Amino acid sequence: MSARKSAVPSPEGIARTNRQRLAAEEGVRAMADAERQAVDVRKNMARLRELRQAKEAADATLQASLPAPTVTKRKKKPPQ
């Protein structure tokens, strides 16, 4: 066996290098896609939070504008 590598790459080596290159490119695309989805989720969460806070504020002003409920006493049941 020789200790030196040959100058001509083997077909298996070329195939392995191509697979590694394709896997690296796919990994970059997948990471970019995951980050884009995370940004979209954060935007949607912010939108929903604003809607919820606006609804809670509207409910609070409506509740404050209504008169306080009157407390009624319970009627005793007549003995049987």
Explain how this protein is built.
By secondary structure, the protein is an all-alpha fold. Helices cover 69% and strands 0% of the residues. It is built from 1 helix and no strands. It has one helix at residues 11-65. The longest helix has 55 residues, at 11-65. The radius of gyration is 35 Å and the shape is rod-shaped.
How many strands appear in the DSSP assignment?
0
Low-pLDDT parts are none
SS-based structural class?
mainly alpha
Note the overall shape.
Answer: rod-shaped
- How far apart, in Å, are the first and last alpha carbons? 110 Å
Order of helices and strands: H
Round the mean pLDDT to the nearest integer and report it.
90
Radius of gyration: 35 Å
Q: Helicity range of the residues?
A: 55-70%
Sheet with the most strands, sense and barrel status? none
Helix count, per DSSP?
Answer: 1
Strand content: under 5%
